[in-house]
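Tokenised fold entry reproduced for absentees:

. . .
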Amino acid sequence: MAVSSSQTAVPRNFKLLDELESGEKGSGSDGTSWGIQNEDDFSLTNWNGMIIGPLKTTFEGRLYNLQLECGANYPDICPKVRFTSRINISCVDANGFVSFAQYALYASKSGHASKFGHPT
């Protein structure tokens, strides 16, 4: 994990436990929820997520399910994200996998990925 002298590296599992707690205790008012896929996954690698389509968009009222895989280098490397619900967005391929490549410039300026690929 590369960090500058003014930053402290947070171990992967600490970060993931924090995000698990956020997902479990979150209000859901932002239209997202997430949690660990299998309670026996002590590596905290495989997750499920759900997004409720935002109001006043073409996605309004729709539920989108996702599978997320947080690799050994998370949060420095974005997780693999796959929509299991059909969705038509330019950054999602025919198999539902999200490409973060178009967001690389923004993510690199902000430091690292958090909240399952959302730049901080």
Observations:
- The longest strand covers residues 46-52.
- Residues 12-25 form the longest helix (14 residues).
